[in-house]
Each structure stands twice: as C-alpha cells, then as structure tokens.
Amino acid sequence: MFAGKLIFKQVMDFVPLPTFRRCVSRYQGDFRVRTFSCLDQFLCMAFAQITHRESLRDIEICLRSQNKKLYHMGIRGTVSRSTLAEANEKRDWRIYAEFAQSLITTARELYKEDSFLEELNETVYALDATTIDLCLSMFPWAPFRKNKAAVKLHTLLDLKGNIPTFIHISDGKLHDVNTLDLLRLEAGAYYVMDRGYLDFERLYAFNQIPAFFVTRAKTNMKFQRRYSHPVDKETGLRCDQTIVLTGFYTGKHYPDTLRRVKFRDPKTGKILVFLTNNFTLPALTIAQLYRSRWQVELFFKWIKQHLRIKRFYGTSENAVKTQVWIAVSVYVIVAIMKKRLNFEESLYTILQILSVSAFEKIDLYQLVTERDCKPVNTDTRNQLKLF
Q1: Spatial CA neighbour of 93 closest among 329, 333, 332, 320
Q2: Average pLDDT score over residue span 336-363
C-alpha cells in the first residue's frame, strides 16, 4: 500500500520553491504577512485550477472539508474566502507572472528536442490573441464595447511543445498589432501571424534582427511583381513571387522585397495568399508554417475549457491577472511533469485524472499510467503530444 504523499503534493513538488521565493522577495509579497503566505495563496489557487473550483466559497468549502490534509498539501495558513480574496486583490500579480516565466523557460528546455517540421531547426512561434468577455459594471477597468468589458490574452506560442513563451493581458480595446511592439524578437526564429498583425512598418523591424515572419496578405494590397519562381501546382501552390510594395505608405514603411506565395487549399478550395521575408524555404513549407498557426487557436480553446480563466474569483485588475498567471503556471507545471515522468497521456487526460484524485495517496505515475490496469508501453512513452 502506498503511504507517501497526496497526489496534489506530488504535482506541486515540480514547483521550484527557491525560484518562487525569489519572486516573492523581489516584490515583497510576504511583507507584514503573518499567516497566509504567497505560497499558501499559490497552492490554493492551483488547487482551484486543478479541481475546477467555481468560486472562492467553493475553494474554501473544499479545502476546509479536508482540513487535516492541508498541512500535507503544503498549505500552512488558514484557508478562508476573505483572506484569499484579499490576497488576490493586494499581492502583486507580477510575482506569479515572473514565476510563470521561469517555469516556461524550464518547459521550453525540456521540449526543445521535440520535432516540429523536418525542414526547420529554428524555433517557430504562433502569435495570436483571444478575448474573454466580462461585465462592464463589475470590471470597469477593462472597457471593450459601449456596454461590455473584456480582457485580451495576447500569446506567443512555441510550437515545440505548445508552450506559451509570452503572454500580455490587456483590456479589450488594445489592437492585436500593438503586441508586436512588446515582443523581444529572437534572431533566426519564425513568427506566424494572421492578417490582424499586418503592419509593414512593424514587420520591417523583423529584417533588422533578422527574424522571419509568415502572415497573410490583404486583398487590397498594392504591389509589383519582380520575379516568379516555378511551382508544382499539383501540391496546391499557384505562384511563388518576389514583390515590392507600391503603396504610398507601405512602400516607405517596407522598402525591401517580399515573398508572395499563393496556395489553394485542396480540402476547402479556398485561395490563400501568404507574405514572408524568407526566400530560402520551399513555398510549400511556407504554407505548412501558416497552417501550424492553428495550434495557438487550439491552445486558447484548451485553456478556456480546462482551466479557470473565463470566470474570475475577483473583479480587480490585480486579481484577474493573478488568476490568469497562476492558471498558466499550472498548465506549464503539468507539461513539465508530463515530460519528466514520460507520460504518453495528453494534458487533458492528466488534468482530468488529477481533478478527482487530488486528496488520494497513491503513486502519481501509477495513477496516470495504470488507471486501466494495463502495462505501460515503454517503447512509445516518449511520443508526446500536448493536445
């Protein structure tokens, strides 16, 4: 009989406590705190994410019902709704944002050997944003429409492992293209974006790094063809051109040549026109790169369904950002755990198992891999997919 740690504690053992304490110390999170520390707050909020708690009262009732086990979960303070609400309201959200970034660095290191496209050794990022609708009277700091509030999650996703490397939380009015001003571009990396990020003055900055972008052209774009490259039309390609922009402003903002690739989707018959500043990759690879952008849409769908980021435990900006960053931390912790324990199960499966087993005392690896009483296939254990 396993007489070790609770499942929740085994998951939280993947949290690097020295790093967490440095983040807390940097922003004085535990200054004048006597009983309910930042670590207690993080563990309670992580428990809420893993077990799908709907409210602060829900968190309080669940944890108090298992009061004798809280110490073994790592929670030292008394859990109460008012204390947790005050912590979310007042303790700097940057503690959890910085801690999540350190976890992201660890996860990217673990997943860097995963294959994405055989032709590419460089990092490929997908950039997009998702909107979470809110009530304007309860969230007046996040205006969106006349009678509506919202927050936007601007996310840069590393497609090796689907790890979010950059997240910016803003009100609903911030246009997607402004996110390009916040990015620290990585030399040699590929950034895949939709037409919402088509700003030639900002895209020209990619050439100075240099980094590469792949995006879609707008129908009213003015350009002049300089050269046409041969393409195999049986693959769906229609043309591969070197062009220059001839619009009055676009020509000034982007004076270099661009590559224009037209592709017909064989499934839908839709014609897609891509723009990139990379002239060495095969044209079909450019189309495949843009198709991979869908991974960021799947990521948004996944976290909205399986993490608590659509309904918030507090209404202030600090509380919302704290909850989102802790949710991201939980996602990355589970991704790190999946890789280090060589789980072949998906993140969805792992989180569903954890959600009903948090208070059990059983070996974590055995719980996840042998839930159907089937032996683990060690030959395929390393074939990991996040979704």
Answers
A1: 320
A2: 90
Per-residue pLDDT for 22 more than 70?
A: yes
| Residue 277 in tokens | 């500043």
Report the DSSP pairing between strands 163-171 and 148-158.
Answer: antiparallel
**Two structure tokens written together for 180:** 């390009």
Structure token pair of residue 31: 């200054």
The pTM for the full model equals 0.88
SS3 annotation, the chain: CCCCCCHHHHHHCCCCHHHHHHHHHHCCCCCCCCCCCHHHHHHHHHHHHHHCCCCHHHHHHHHHHCHHHHHHHCCCCCCCHHHHHHHHHHCCCHHHHHHHHHHHHHHHHHHCCCCCCCCCCCCEEEEEEEEEEECCCCCCCCEEECCEEEEEEEEEEECCCCEEEEEEEEECCCCHHHHHHCCCCCCCCEEECCHHHCCHHHHHHHHHCCCEEEEECCCCCCEEEEEEECCCHHHCEEEEEEEEECCHHHHHHCCCCEEEEEEECCCCCCEEEEEECCCCCCHHHHHHHHHCCHHHHHHHHHHHHHCCCCCCCCCCHHHHHHHHHHHHHHHHHHHHHHHHCCCCCCHHHHHHHHHCCCCCCCCHHHHHHCCCCCCCCCCCCCCCCCC
pLDDT higher than threshold 70 for residue 321: yes
pLDDT confidence tier of residue 175, bands split at 50, 70 and 90? very high
Give me the torsion for CA of 10, 15, 16, 18, rounded to 10°: -100
343: left (phi over 0), alpha (psi -120 to 50) or beta: beta
- Tokens representing 151 are 């927050």
Report phi then psi at 231, rounded to 5.
-135, 155
User: Which one-letter amino acid corresponds to residue 187?
Assistant: A
- As a whole number, mean pLDDT of residues 41-64 equals 94
How does pLDDT run across 272-309, given as a tens digit for each residue?
Answer: 999 999 999 999 999 999 999 999 999 999 898 888 88
